[in-house]
Amino acid sequence: VTSHPLSKVYLNNAFIGNTPLCLCETNTMIAAGDYTIRLVPLDSTFEEFTEKIMLTKGVLTVVDRKFGKGATSEGSIISLTPLANA
User: Fold this and answer.
1) Residues 30, 40, 49, CA angle at the centre, nearest 5°?
2) For residue 7, which of 62, 61, 51, 47 has the smallest C-alpha distance?
3) Can you tell me the distance from the alpha carbon of 38 to that of 14, in angstroms, rounded to the nearest whole number?
């Protein structure tokens, strides 16, 4: 999870860390399932971001958010799976 400015990260309303956040090691991975992710910018002049995401076993999910004023915020949620024939 990355964001600009830096943010607090909540998963199903439980604080899991600050951006940049990588839970990519086996002992820190989050179980597959449906979640609500919430990013709360450390700069309180920006509005928080909330989105439902689905985590799938064996799939890397990347959440990136650039906070802006009003409609100038942008972001992406990308899920990466290995190619079957690679």
Assistant:
1) 80
2) 47
3) 9
CB atoms within 10 A of CB 7: 25
Distance CA 59, CA 22 (A): 14
How far, in Å, CA of 7 to CA of 59, rounded? Answer: 24
Question: For residue 13, what pLDDT is reported?
Answer: 96
Choose among 70, 75, 72: nearest CA to 19: 75
Tens-digit pLDDT profile for the chain (86 aa)?
Answer: 999 999 999 999 999 999 999 998 888 889 999 999 999 999 999 999 999 999 988 888 999 999 988 778 888 888 877 667 65
